């Protein structure tokens, strides 16, 4: 039997009924095998038919982790079948469909992702609890990210101008030492600071830059979608920016009206489906009024389901018009992307900046451009 056939039968039969099959598997295929075993392997475990606690024998998976895993590693049609079997046959999604279990759940980013993946299965009572849970997780993210993201927009240091405002972050250590050397105490070996010196800061120009954030809704981009919603809400409150937030798969949803509320934004996101990045970029281009005062940030894995030529053509037109185009393969704390390097390189070749960033790094980039 060929290796490909062995792998297919292993995934179909599972660990119990495939003792004589030992195909070589990639890390992704091993994860798929583990996810399928989590759901269907219990058919052969009489002692573990009730898995409502969220674990299954030696598996370290929790229910939210299983939900997130299938959405990242399987196509939409397979996800729908797995969810149907999980809900109707095994009831392992109770963590996000049972109100009592959801009340006892510990708020976390993992649970938030599972809620967003399965909110379409929830009744109104559970959905209200899920929204409250999402709000708690998002509030923690906002508290963590708001200060470092807003800091670059407080005004940049003007090193040629002094200030009488004695603010620690404006302290000019080098100038202070230089000007106070005459007060050096030789006997004690100490420098006495008689007069500290501080930098001044320049406020930004009042006219706004337009920031357009396009976010890929494909399953593997969930972390970036969450951080994009939080990031956009923080940018929304910065006076120097006119922020627009758009999510897309093969369809486009403009969430700008909900931008200030990341919870509402996320509850309107529909993860999965195909990906038409070129279509999204065309919509982004339609929002441009002053190209030389526009930043367009595309957050995607660059796995284009449409015609790549349209994506590259729109990108080139934007760059040549003066728009600052930034393609991000990841936007979260880890900034550890998986993406189509060929498409990303082609975008970089025609003038787009391409990489991966944390929200703080994105804020610094935006700040530097609008200066």
Automatic annotation (TrEMBL):
Pfam families: VWA_CoxE (PF05762). SUPFAM superfamilies: vWA-like. SMART domains: VWA. Residues 208-367 form the VWFA domain. InterPro entries: LolB, Uncharacterised_CoxE, VWF_A, vWFA_dom_sf. This is VWA_CoxE family protein.
């Amino acid at each position: 039997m060929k290796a490909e056939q062995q792998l297919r039968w292993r995934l179909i039969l599972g660990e119990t009924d495939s003792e004589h099959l030992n195909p070589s598997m990639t890390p992704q295929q091993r994860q798929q095998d583990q996810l399928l075993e989590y759901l269907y392997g219990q058919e052969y475990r009489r002692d573990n038919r009730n898995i409502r606690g969220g674990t299954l024998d030696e598996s370290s998976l929790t229910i939210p982790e299983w939900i997130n895993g299938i959405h990242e590693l399987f196509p939409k049609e397979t996800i729908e079948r797995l969810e149907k079997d999980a809900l109707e046959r095994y009831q392992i999604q109770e963590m996000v469909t049972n109100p009592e279990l959801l009340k006892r759940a510990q708020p976390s980013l993992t649970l938030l992702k599972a809620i967003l993946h399965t909110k379409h299965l929830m009744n109104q009572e559970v959905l209200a609890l899920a929204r409250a849970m999402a709000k708690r997780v998002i509030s923690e993210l906002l508290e963590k990210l708001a200060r470092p993201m807003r800091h670059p927009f407080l005004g940049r240091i003007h090193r040629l101008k002094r200030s009488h405002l004695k603010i620690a972050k404006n302290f000019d250590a080098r100038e202070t030492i230089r000007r106070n050397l005459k007060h050096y105490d030789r006997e004690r070996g100490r420098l006495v600071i008689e007069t500290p010196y501080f930098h001044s800061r320049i406020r930004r120009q009042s006219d706004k830059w337009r920031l357009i954030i396009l976010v890929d809704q494909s399953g593997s981009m969930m972390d970036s979608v969450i951080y994009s919603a939080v990031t956009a809400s923080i940018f929304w409150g910065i006076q120097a920016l006119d922020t627009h937030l758009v999510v897309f798969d093969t369809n486009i949803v403009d969430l700008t009206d909900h931008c200030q509320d990341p919870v509402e934004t996320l509850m309107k996101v529909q993860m999965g489906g195909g990906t038409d990045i070129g279509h999204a970029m065309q919509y982004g281009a339609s929002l441009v009024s002053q190209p030389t005062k526009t930043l367009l940030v595309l957050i995607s894995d660059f796995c284009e389901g449409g015609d790549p030529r349209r994506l590259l053509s729109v990108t080139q037109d934007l760059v040549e018009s003066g728009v600052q185009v930034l393609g991000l393969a990841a936007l979260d704390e880890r900034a550890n992307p998986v993406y189509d390097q060929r498409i990303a390189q082609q975008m970089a070749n025609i003038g787009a900046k391409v990489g991966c960033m944390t929200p703080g790094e994105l804020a610094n980039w935006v700040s530097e451009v609008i200066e």
